[in-house]
Amino acid sequence: MDSQGTRNSILLTPGPTEIDPDVLRAMSHVAESHFSQAFCNTFGDVLTMLRKLFQSEDPQAQPFVIGGSGTLGWDFTATNFVEPGESVLCLSTGFFADAFEMCLSTYGAHTKKLTVPFGTAPDLAIVEEELKACRYKALVVTHVDTSTSVLTPLQPLRNMLKRVSPETLLVVDGVASVACEEIEFDAWNIDVLVTGSQKAIGCPPGLSIIMVSGRALEVVRTRHSPPSSWYASLTRWLPIMQKYENKEPSYFATPPTQVVHALHASLTSILSLPLKERFTRHQEKATEVRSALTELGLKTVALQPENQSNGVTAFWLPEGLSSKALLSAVLAKGVTLAAGMHPEHGSKYARFGHMGYSVMSESGLRIDIGVEALRETVVGFYESQRQDIATEGYTEFKNQPQSVTVGA
Amino acid sequence: MDSQGTRNSILLTPGPTEIDPDVLRAMSHVAESHFSQAFCNTFGDVLTMLRKLFQSEDPQAQPFVIGGSGTLGWDFTATNFVEPGESVLCLSTGFFADAFEMCLSTYGAHTKKLTVPFGTAPDLAIVEEELKACRYKALVVTHVDTSTSVLTPLQPLRNMLKRVSPETLLVVDGVASVACEEIEFDAWNIDVLVTGSQKAIGCPPGLSIIMVSGRALEVVRTRHSPPSSWYASLTRWLPIMQKYENKEPSYFATPPTQVVHALHASLTSILSLPLKERFTRHQEKATEVRSALTELGLKTVALQPENQSNGVTAFWLPEGLSSKALLSAVLAKGVTLAAGMHPEHGSKYARFGHMGYSVMSESGLRIDIGVEALRETVVGFYESQRQDIATEGYTEFKNQPQSVTVGA
Q: What integer pLDDT is reported at residue A392 of this predicted model?
């Protein structure tokens, strides 16, 4: 069907991810009016199921599902919860955190960005110091930055924030963490959680998904200036989401009906198992991928175990093997991985997505195939290196023990 | 498959519309990376095909395809082409034109709205007077307002604008007109044309489609203040669209890959016939629908023939028949129509969508079925009225000639 040769490749990028055939079938749902009772029922169920995914039972909190990408959630945050000139503290662990900060700044927020060394997570003591030095309207953290796979643990951050600056809103970018990392929206007192449909949720891209606490809704109700965006206005969308959750029609902009059906299918599948089991399976598979990397002598970008994500692993490539060469080689073996995302280091590392359907289906067989393709490629590279050296006359090299043990 | 009873109804609303099975199949395209060559090729073709749909050959003009609804095109217009405080003249022929004006105003534009009597189009003399009285950065017109089905002819407006205020940008909301009404982007000197995927283009909802002239791009390049939106920033999206059109990967936000495939399928189908033929078929089918309404003694909301749209017809209901009752009755016959959209008149009129696949497939059979369902319902209503009157003792009524001739 596809002449490009990637039609049947296994997609192990950190989004879009592999999709359950039931979810793909839902994408072909026949055309229907967004005012029809059938669609209202579907959309209503989606919103109710999202509350479960976020482990939230607070009726004051409200999920939003809006046509667009996960990025739209940044605009939603920037235009609704922060007024121009207000201070926002942004913790940067990579490309996406940097972009979120730029988005906030575009809307007039006065941002302060704390950037950590590549591959590390924020030092809580430094964040605490900053929060004590200045009054911040919001603290923005990227739970897992897709570009580095660095995970910033939320609970210690939340506990500290509650202690030193309880009035500051906690905004979490969960694009690469929702549905593969434990997140308890209520218990962890998260105020705004933004994500997309196409990562661990396992739905095609096309939906911006946002969960907002009652406290954050109140912040919007009492703001001094109106939001400067139309399409990303919480005030415009709130009654629409309330109506749809009540299974009644409402209108602000036409929702992508088919993708909403697909989200319904993926959430139904996700919630058919206890969430704990889902998170454990992701953790186990992530550990397997990292073990394989260690066996290949490759280091992960996120060094500390507590900062390693369960949904994606960024790893350094051997000197001489570019991400482009690696990606081509694994693609030839039917597997799609992702290159690094960094102006300087981008070509020196690659990213292996292990989230959603590829982890949860067939005991994670697709991940195993991906690991094997990676292993063969890296071993092949090591072999070619040895041959190059041999050709150059260093024949004694072959007889020496290698620093890297390559597993079978 | 669907227990709600609307699963197999024929969708004759002014969007979403019926979808070609090939387009629906494309919605189930397997997951793929938005960086893959295969996807770059598809997205590139989509952009090239959009130029053809807009009848544009100007290499300085640029199409944009962004995840979101058609409404996002208003934010795109408001944040990129107009700076806060600049004057914009908005011609209002209904709900959507009013909302576009509110969106512009949200972004800080100084808007002046010319609202015409319900069911009519703007009087060119009044618009000309206004353009002479004040210098406007942009003139915003809703080509067809979906809420009233009033079409505002673009060519006379453009000619007048060119004569009295050539520096004013012409912004056209083509959500309900692109792909069912003749639009020549270059020849008519349109500067910004916004539309959505789910109306006459016949693709599922989920894409904001925008065409921008070279002149309007220059306006963005030379603006004094940066755009206040992140997700709707033309400057951010422009290099992405240029790269994709060149079939190279690029990234700002993840595109809804499956919906882009669906758009590829629908544009391929649209361009397989000369556009003229497509527009003629829409015109013919619209005429048939309006003839049927006349036979039923029903008046269209848009009174003047030159202001009647070829994609949707809003029509007044007989006194005593609400849009809700009509919609329920035709739904029972397997057809979905839309209610009116107006705070005062909403329940007194209904809307019949005749655009896209339902017009172009099977010689418009679905439209014929829709007309028949409407006819039966209205005739049934007239009959029940007569019976009510008879029951009340006005038996002589039945023998008198009726003012309404109901066709078979």
A: 66
Compute the distance between CA of residue A221 and CA of residue A234 in angstroms, rounded to an integer: 10
Residue numbers of A between 185 and 204 with CB closer than 8 Å to B:
196, 198, 204
Question: How much is the average pLDDT of B305-324?
Answer: 97
Q: How long, in residues, is chain A? A: 408
Q: Does the predicted interface ipTM exceed a cut of 0.85?
A: yes
CA distance A255 to A392: 63
> What is the C-alpha separation between A340 and B324, in angstroms, rounded?
55
- State whether A11 and B34 contact (CB < 8 Å): no
Assess whether pLDDT exceeds 60 at residue A402.
no
Average pLDDT, chain B: 94
Q: What one-letter code names the amino acid at A23?
A: V
- What's the pLDDT tens digit per position in A3-25? 333 457 899 999 999 999 999 99
**Coil, strand or helix at A372:** helix
What does the alpha-carbon distance between residue A184 and residue A213 come to, in Å, rounded to a whole number? 12
CA–CA distance, A70 with A232 (Å, rounded to integer): 12
Query: What number of H helices and E strands is found in chain B?
Result: 13, 14
Least confident of A393-407, B147-161, B238-252: A393-407
Per-position DSSP letters for B215-235, written without gaps between them: HHHHHHHT-SS--S-STT-HH
Arithmetic mean of pLDDT, A326-331: 97
Contact with chain A for residue B18, Cβ under 8 A? yes
pLDDT in tens, B343-394: 889 899 999 999 999 999 999 999 999 999 999 999 999 999 988 877 765 4
DSSP states along A149-193: TEE--HHHHHHHHHHH-TTSEEEEE-TTTBTTB---TTTTT-SEE
**Cα first-last separation, chain A:** 35
| A287-322 residue pLDDT tens | 999 999 999 999 999 999 999 999 999 999 999 999
Q: What are the residues whose beta carbons fall under 8 Å from the beta carbon of A146, sequence distance 6 or more?
A: A14, A15, A94, A95, A96, A175, A176, A199, A312, A341, A351
- Assign B196 to helix, strand or coil: strand
With tokens 């197999």, the residue in question is B8
pLDDT of the residue at B308: 98
CB B28, CB B267: distance < 8 Å:
no
Residues 6+ apart with CB under 8 A from B44: B244, B245, B246, B247
| pLDDT value for B389 | 76
Chain A, window 331-350: residues with a beta carbon less than 8 angstroms from a chain B beta carbon: 336, 338-339
- CA-nearest residue to B108 within chain A is A228
Q: Are A113 and A90 in contact (CB under 8 A)?
A: yes
pTM equals 0.94
With CA atoms as reference, the chain A residue closest to B16 would be A33
| Domains by residue range for chain A, with CATH | 22-270 (3.40.640.10), 275-396 (3.90.1150.10)
Closest to B170 in 3D by CA, of B151, B156, B180, B182: B156
* Whole-number pLDDT of residue A395: 45
* Count of residues making up chain B: 408
Please list, in sequence order, all residues whose beta carbon lies within 8 angstroms of the beta carbon of residue A134, skipping any fewer than 6 positions away: A87, A89, A112
H or E element in which residue B172 lies: strand B169-173
Q: CB distance B36–A6 less than 8 Å?
A: yes
Q: Please state, in angstroms and rounded to a whole number, the distance separating the CA atoms of residues B160 and A24.
A: 50
